[in-house]
Every structure is written in structure tokens, then in C-alpha cells.
Write a structure and sequence with these properties.
heterodimer; A: 4-stranded antiparallel β-sheet; 11 strands; globular; B: 6-stranded mixed β-sheet; 61% strand
């Protein structure tokens, strides 16, 4: 069966520090991968999606970047964190953007910027 | 702007009662999906209904879709305390005319089931 792992679960970082959040998927090949951010009491905002290795699409201009160095690894990064980067970050995978397949989410990373 | 908007924002019911949540959207869709999120956790997919379907059941869940009104509802029957969570609708739709499709989530309905 397929599983998705995100780490760390929580992170407290000072303003201006770098960020690296990692997501890995097991049990499937060539998944579509997504990074979302969820502000408190709000819906999900799609940040990045990837249909393959080194193929990243950005949805909103921001202080963050994403990379996919391996088929089942998706990394969210920042060189210098801002206070506005605080939030709950969720990674997800699916089989095919054009299909009826649902998205499967990790348990998220709670990021607090001080 | 958000494609899907849930209503109500919050709902509190007694255990055993039915819970109904609604979702409205703006553009044509391929399918509409409902997800559940327990506090501090990731989202879990509940049910998917295609644009050519009108109703779908899964256990205690019943989903309807009215494409003419661009709306959907999620009914949870005989609710349990363990159903307490936030519920999100998400629309699968063509994105930016670029030939790609995306899944756009609403802000969710927070359901509290009181034992």
C-alpha cells in the first residue's frame, strides 16, 4: 500500500532563517506531488505541484521554492523565512492530474516563525 | 478566488443526529470530492462524485451534486462523536486554460458532534 511521510511534524524557526521540509511517498511510481499551505481556520492554498522529477509548477509568487530530486521525494525550501510563512504545510500525492484519482495527504508540518 | 465554498462554517449537533454540509462552486467541474481533517492532521479523502452523477453513497455518507446549481451536499447520518472534524469540498476542474487540471479546496465546515 502507498504511504506518505512528512517531517518534521512541528518546527519553530526565527525570521530570516532557512527552511527545508521533506516529503516522501512509498508504494507508488511517478506520482503527482503537491505542497499546500493551510492558514488557521482556512482552506488549502496550493503552493507547488510536480508531475515528474525536476518538473515544478508554482501557483503563487512567494518566498518559498520546491524541488523534486527523486521520483518520490518533494522538498519545500526557503532561503530566508518571513513571519507570513507561518502555517500548516501539507504534502500530498495523486495518480494523474487528469484522472478521477483523489489526493492523499501527509500529516503536515506546523511551522511557527518567531 | 476560492472555487468551493462550504456552508455552514461551523455546525454543532448531538450524537445520533444527521449532519448536512453544503458546497457551492463557480466554474465547470470534472468531479467534486469531499475530505475530512481531524484537528492537526492531514486531509483524508471521503468520497468523489463525477459531474455526470447526481448522488453517491458510502457507508453513512451521502453526497449529492447539482451541476445546474453548481452545488453539492454531504450528509452524515447517525453522527458519532468520532465524526468531529473539519470537512472540505474540493472541485477538480480545468485550470487557467492551459490544459491542466487542479483540485481547489474550500474553507471547510467545522463539525462538532456532542456525545
Amino acid at each position: 500500500s502507498q504511504t506518505i511521510h512528512q517531517w518534521p511534524a512541528t518546527l519553530v524557526q526565527p525570521v530570516g532563517s532557512p527552511l527545508s521540509l521533506e516529503c516522501t511517498v512509498e508504494g507508488t511510481s511517478n506520482p503527482n506531488l503537491y505542497w499546500y499551505r493551510q492558514a488557521a481556520g482556512r482552506g488549502l492554498q496550493l503552493l507547488f505541484y510536480s508531475i515528474g522529477i525536476d518538473q515544478i509548477s508554482s501557483e503563487v509568487p512567494q518566498n518559498l521554492s520546491a524541488s523534486r530530486p527523486q521520483d518520490r521525494q518533494f522538498i519545500l525550501s526557503s532561503k530566508k523565512l518571513l513571519l507570513s510563512d507561518s502555517g500548516f504545510y501539507l504534502c500530498a500525492w495523486s495518480l494523474g492530474l487528469l484522472s478521477d484519482q483523489p489526493q492523499h495527504f501527509g500529516d503536515g508540518t506546523r511551522l511557527s516563525i518567531l | 478566488s476560492q472555487q468551493g465554498e462550504e456552508d455552514p462554517q461551523a455546525l454543532s449537533i448531538q450524537e445520533g443526529e444527521n449532519a448536512t454540509m453544503n458546497c457551492s462552486y463557480k466554474t465547470s467541474i470534472n468531479n467534486l470530492q469531499w475530505y475530512r481533517q481531524n484537528s492537526g492532521r492531514g486531509l483524508v479523502h471521503l468520497i468523489l462524485i463525477r459531474s455526470n452523477e447526481r448522488e453517491k453513497h458510502s457507508g453513512r455518507l451521502r453526497v449529492t451534486l447539482d451541476t445546474s446549481k453548481k452545488s453539492s451536499s454531504l450528509l452524515i447520518t447517525a453522527s458519532r462523536a468520532a465524526d468531529t472534524a473539519s470537512y472540505f469540498c474540493a472541485t477538480h476542474h480545468r485550470y487557467s486554460g492551459a490544459g491542466s487540471y487542479q483540485l481547489t479546496f474550500g474553507k471547510g465546515t467545522k463539525l462538532s458532534v456532542i456525545p
